[in-house]
Amino acid sequence: MREKLFCILENDNDSLLSRCYNLIMLFAIVVSLIPLMSKYTNSFHLLMDYISTAIFCLDYLFRMLTADFKLQKGKLSFLFYPFSLLAIVDLLSILPTFLYFNNSLRLLKIVRMGRVLRVFKVIRYSKNIQILTNVLQNQKESLLLVASLAVGYIFFTALLIFSVEPDTFETFFDAIYWATISLTTVGYGDIFATTMLGKIITMFSSIIGIAIVALPAGIITAGYMNEITKNK
């Protein structure tokens, strides 16, 4: 019985029950996000939240009951499963509804932020997102290398511009902010170089930034194509 339930949850046999279950969960996720589109909460919003939370609770319970099939670690699976990434997302998407009964304004803001995490539940029920997740997992070393390169370059250019234009940048954080928007070629224009040398640094930073920003896109695209080919 538990094994059949696990197959439905994980869509192992691509059965009609699995597809229906995924559709129900996707519908519940969308419904649970509707109240976040309004500043005010009414009885209809609360009803939608209660129904979607009840569905999420059942899903969490089902996955806890079949954790040993998922993790393949015997009885220890039931201990380790709550600490897995998707299980934490599931739990954080449930808790806001129970915290809502507290009237603290600060807590209510946390509740609204917690509900936003329900978006990430889509990862479990979308094949395309699962493929993308696999790509990120497989290419993590390359992506971490690019991320390290970007962070190092931001820090270096921030130090450089902060030394060249100490009057323009009041704090080193301002220099970090400038280096980040220059690297990504966004350029909001709220902080900018004013000297000739500072402008030259900005030009080089933007040109190199295009190359650094393009690297992750190429890595992910290549990995995505490989993953699609593998699944055919």
From TrEMBL:
This is Potassium channel family protein. The lineage of its organism: Bacteria, Bacillati, Bacillota, Bacilli, Lactobacillales. It is found in: Membrane. InterPro entries: Ion_trans_dom, K_chnl_volt-dep_Kv, VG_K_chnl. GO terms for cellular component: voltage-gated potassium channel complex. The chain crosses the membrane at residues 20-38, 44-66, 78-101, 143-163, 175-193, 200-225. Keywords: Ion channel, Ion transport, Membrane, Potassium, Potassium channel, Potassium transport, Transmembrane, Transmembrane helix, Transport. It comes from Streptococcus suis. It is a multi-pass membrane protein. One of its GO terms (biological process) is action potential. The keyword Cytoplasm does not apply. Its main location: membrane. One of its GO terms (molecular function) is voltage-gated potassium channel activity. Coiled coil: none annotated. Residues 19-225 form the Ion transport domain.
